[in-house]
Amino acid sequence: MLTLGILHSTIRADEKLLIEAAEKNKIRVSLIDVRNELFNPQTYKPTFDIALERCISTIKGMYATQFLESTGISVINCSKVAAVCEDKFLTSLALEKARVPTPKFALVFTLEQAIKAIEQLGGFPVVVKPNLGSWGRLLAKINDMDALEAILEHKDVLGSPQQKAFYFQQYIKKPGRDIRVFTIDGRAICAIYRDSTHWITNTARGGVATNCLVTKEISAISQNAAKAVGGGILAMDIFETKEGLTINEINHTMEFKNSEKPTNVSISGEIIKYCIKVFRS
Amino acid sequence: MQLTSQCIVCDADVQLPKDVQISEIVSCLECKTNLVVERINEMKIALSKAPAVEEDWGE
Question: Model's pTM, two decimal places?
């Protein structure tokens, strides 16, 4: 019987759904809290056949993935996909290279270059985001020069080294919602609208999830975006604009607990089936 | 049977789901502290304070 190692740090409702789905698909689960692991290639003895990376910590998840891959164990998602998706600048570059619609963006290290970048992006407002981060945290919509100076100074003085690489994105005015599409193996399996009166629509920030029909347009852009970053199990955040759909971000260890009910799709079940498929192939 | 443990901050009873797992985060309804399940041993469940959200946490 196949044993799936679920790499985690905390156990969220999402991981419990995965455990339940694994039981339904008759595969064993080995829960691996990466914080308790000792990744020494000379001594490590895995207790599983294939791994699913579900760490809440991006950095710990990446090291665990790279270590296991070095020992010959397949990890979903693989480190190449994770490296692109965990960094918003690298995601934007991958989408740009593959000509997948995405908001205009630029990365700079100084205020002087930031002013030039904002001009190139079409002027204020713009959004500044941490390259590494999630749940809508530390995002700022910058409406004018005063705010720009204040935010960059704060990041420069108080931030970690990563916060000192300033990633700017063109501000996209949304119709009070965005779309999150869940793709597995390049196929959009379901989608939700995330409605919010706030410009940040993450469900972690109060966005309300309702079912969104996967149209041909949604399916096509998701497929192209998945291909651009290397495929696997992904969640795409999509904006609706007058010019059509545009990919905002791509998540590689997505949370889905609030999306199974509105979509009536067992996302956890689809994830487990994909892990079985990867193992058998 | 309802699984319970004690909050390490305020001593209140904390109710736990039947499928509780080690490393799961639960909240104390009394003092609102986030707690993490450290050990499950013959239905005895040990809780400690959950780690604070870190910069690289998320999806």
Answer: 0.93
